[in-house]
Amino acid sequence: MSANFDLNAVSGINAAASGLAVISNNLANSQSFGFKSSRAEFADMFSGTQNSPGNGVMVESITQDFSQGTINGTGRDLDMALDGEGFFVMADKAGKYEAIYTRNGSFKLDKDGFLTDQTGNQVQGYARNDVLSTEQDVVFSTNLGSIDLDELNKVPRSTTEMVFNVNLDGQEAYNSANNTGNLASDSVGTGTGDPTNNLAAIIDPTNAVPAYTGFPDFSTNKTIHDSLGGEHRITADFFKRAVVDVVDPNGVPRSNEDFDLDGNNDKYTSWFVRYTVSDFDKDTGTYIPSGVDNTTTAQANGGNTGMLFELRFDDNGRLQRVYQPNDKDPTLITGDSPTIGPNGEPIFDDLAGWTDTGTLKPNMEWLINNPLTGAVDPISFTAEFNDMTEFSGSYNIRGVSQNGYEIGDLIGLATGSDGVIEARYSNGRAIPVAQLAVANFSDKNAMHKLGGQTYAESFNSGTAQLGSPDNNGMGSVVQGSLEYSNVDTTAELVEMIQVQRMYQASAQVLSTSQTLTQTILNL
């Protein structure tokens, strides 16, 4: 019986020692970022019948508590905490595991520009897909990879897309000399001379005769970039032309009308928009024309300095068609004189020599002076008009953007709750460049513990469930913060006292057993 006492007491001492080791580890890591506390779970040992007094105690398992730790702000851009379920995903620099996982979001940029943890494991995420992404909508890759922030914007990018999200004032008066709207004589300007050149004056204000002496109804400009990152200013000037009937005064559809917007429209509103490109002249402190329409018939002055489109809005103020001249030669662009209605009012026809582009995203092509070679290089981009409107009241620039940029260096990062990392560069750009990946497991306690608050997938943990923050049950990212250890120091100290008593009691049992044995030996 004494032997049984001894073995039970020894098992109690060993179990208590393991429990104290767990508690001491928790207390030692109470300030470790992302650390999850553990507890020793004890179980009795039995063999034989139910009348057996038992064979002592054992540590059945050491279970980690993956509950949320306190999130505290640090003010550092590359510190990130997960509020909720999931782990940050990192590549194992040792190559032993396909990926390792952590709740410690203390990250940095290494010398090559990769986002890593403090030991050099590269943080994994989804890179921006530049082929599918636009200035308005960002698409991320579905393939997991390291987040490289160094190469972005090191090479300049030529403008390939411009978005014009503008509301034109539907109550604007017609831009014409005597309000008759006669495009062949006095529309959009007050120039003298050959009246058919008024449109030429709009598209090429620097060379057309007569010169355009009126003003656009609304203007806006934006900087665009060539292949070297050089800056050029593109200006969009809007002119309200007229309201155009789709039938003549006798109710007969006009032969060159090719659309009915919604089955109920009998009119549409016509606007001109002229685009010109210029460069800043440091000597004079002014902007001078630099762009040349690359699709035009050659002119005596070397080409046009502008491009012209007609925008057609339906009765509801929505843009429906974009027209362009058949021949970009401004001297050949003419308008039809209006038909006089039954009450003497001018009724407009379509513009002669203009064609529907078939898209609300027509292409523009220019020739830009190359500062390195002295030659002229083409710059081509799409002008997106999809969101253009013509509601009454005011002009409203809701967004005019372009996707070109000059060379720049990374100066800062901002990460949203959804894990999207927005990089800020010295060239003034701030763009989403990647999205952090997060992972979760069916049985977190079955993961391999690697130290440094990192884990690896095991057979019993199940395969990693990959996703993105703030989505499908995953936690959200809190930038400029770190998740502290979830160790409750007070509770651990109380638990230590209880386990210490268990240790002392087991030692006392062993001492009592020795006393009994000595008593028997003294008989």
What does this structure look like?
This protein has 523 residues and is mostly beta strands. The chain has three domains: 2-67 and 485-521, no CATH class; 71-155 and 418-483, no CATH class; 161-406, Flagellar hook protein FlgE (Tick-borne Encephalitis virus Glycoprotein, domain 1). It is 13% helix and 35% strand. The protein is built from three helices and 33 strands. The strands form nine sheets. Strands 12, 13, 14, 15, 17, 18 and 21 form a seven-stranded antiparallel beta sheet that branches. Strand 29 and strand 30 form a beta hairpin. Helix 1 packs antiparallel against helix 3. The longest helix is centred in the C-terminal third of the chain and has 33 residues, at 489-521. The protein is elongated. Residues 177-197, 293-303 and 330-336 have low confidence and may be disordered.
